[in-house]
Amino acid sequence: MAATPGPLPAAPTVDAVVVGAGLSGLYQLHRLRELGLTAVVLEAGADIGGTWYWNRYPGARCDIESMSYSYSFSPELDQEWQWSERYASQPEILRYIHHVADRFDLRRDVMLRTRVSRAVYDGTSHLWRVRTDTGRTVTARFVILATGCMSVPKDPGIPGADSFTGTVHHTARWPREDVSFTGKRVAVIGTGCSGVQAIPVIAGEAAALTVYQRTPAYVLPARNRPLRASEVAEFKARYPEFRRAQRLSRGGTVFAPPTRSALEADEAERTAAYEAAWDSGLLNGLLRTYTDILTDEAANETVAEFVRSKIRSIVTDPATADLLSPRTFPFATKRPCLGTDYYATYNLPHVRLVDLRTTPIETITPRGIRTTQGEQVLDVIVFATGFDALTGSQLAIDIVGKGGVTLRERWAAGPRNHLGLMSAGFPNLFTVLGPLSPSVLTNIAVSLEQQVEWITRCIAHLLDNGLTEIDVSPEAEADWGARVAELAARTLYPAADSWYTGANVPGKPRVFLAYAGGLDRYREECDTVARGGYTGFVLS
Ligand code: N01
């Protein structure tokens, strides 16, 4: 239980506080302004951009096509912005976010270098008091956490890390100034999507690269390339129609859904389908070949083995190919990675793979990394060790709701909320792309718009009806948690130790953290709740 806050000012500083100036927070600000509300965005970083501000490691790039991974709310914006590549690089996405901020005049309400440390609800005035690490307090009727799905880097917990006398970087806290690897002996620890993107680029510069792998990923070729002016023009001509289809889609990308089980097809047919998907360069290409890749172990294994065969065909050393082949979890139950030259990088003479399952790290030393096989002397260590995903960024804030109950207490056994949007006992506090919503299983550019728009309509409803507070009924919250768990249980997702389940963070409750029913269905559920007068919520 937290201490009761002191007296509040008669009027709130602003109508709404938005936490985070990434894609979600900036769009939320835009929508709140349209309602005529005053809002401030509090952002920990030295600039706007969120994920695309922090994750500026070499090779950082989106794994959803650029024409699709962008805001859809402004047809004019769609027409004027020019993406240069099929998959946008981090610098280009950051430029896009800056362009949007300027175009919609968003910056003047963003407070940079301001991390929210605490938010306390006052049940008498129905206001939130939000404190920052700069010592500022802002009061507001509404708080929207747009803190990102993956914004709290995970502490790798490797002993001796502080003793290393060389340079250390985490992919998610990459410095803004240039980092040169030329002539350096470099280690990358971690082979998730961040490591997979960084490794080939670092290998292109470093004198020697050692990759420390605990679990190999399924890495699919991105087939990134510059976009041709003609294809962009053609795409733009049908942008409105595409955006409509995207909004109605299952995952925020548009495709023809499969109709058959992988097990109904014979091997030759399956291989042809998988080859076409591999060549497509799409993150979900393989997943979309058949209906049951994510629900049937035997169907899934046909894809997993196809990817392993590709690894064997690319990596010349059979022992290395074997180590790079994922076997401990079904395909796509951890997010697959889109890579460029990832497997071929291991054919380079100065690149070495260390399997941490057989030769674990004992300690980081002042000179390098010591495994059970000896010490590797290094100049630079790159941690690509991931995030405390989905719940980490909210639990990093000391959030105190009704009756002094904290969010950390409420979520001790895992996140609890209704529609992934609000938790019982924390009135007028909304979350964008939070746990138990489809977020990370979709094109988040589409998901965030859906949630921001729902939240905005909800706030408008409160204001239009002279209401001051929206809270969640504990029953609705329990039902939602059960529903999300039940949808996950129909899939193979829970079979993997992944950040989807919280398994990557020691001590984190094991809960499947995303709504696996599809964005289309989720949108319908949210809209039904709103149409029904916000069923499951308590309005007063
Ligand atoms: O993090 P991860 P990430 N010692 O958790 C290893 C999105 N993303 O930053 O699997 C040794 O996936 C860990 O090993 P293991 C995307 O959604 C998108 O790469 O726990 N190793 C794993 O190999 C993605 O899924 C894009 O056994 C340790 C790696 O570090 C998500 O972000 C690009 C370790 C962490 O992989 C997270 O990706 C990048 C330790 N102590 C990221 N601790 C695109 O859009 C962890 N590991 C393309």
From TrEMBL:
InterPro entries: FAD-binding_Monooxygenases, FAD/NAD-bd_sf
Keyword list, A-Z: FAD, Flavoprotein, Monooxygenase, NADP, Oxidoreductase
Keyword NADP part of the UniProt annotation: yes
Cofactor: FAD
NADP found in the keyword field: yes
Gene Ontology molecular function terms on file: oxidoreductase activity, acting on paired donors, with incorporation or reduction of molecular oxygen, NAD(P)H as one donor, and incorporation of one atom of oxygen
Protein family according to the UniProt entry: Belongs to the FAD-binding monooxygenase family.
Protein name: Cyclohexanone monooxygenase
Native source organism of the sequence: Streptomyces griseoviridis
Organism placement in taxonomy: Bacteria, Bacillati, Actinomycetota, Actinomycetes, Kitasatosporales
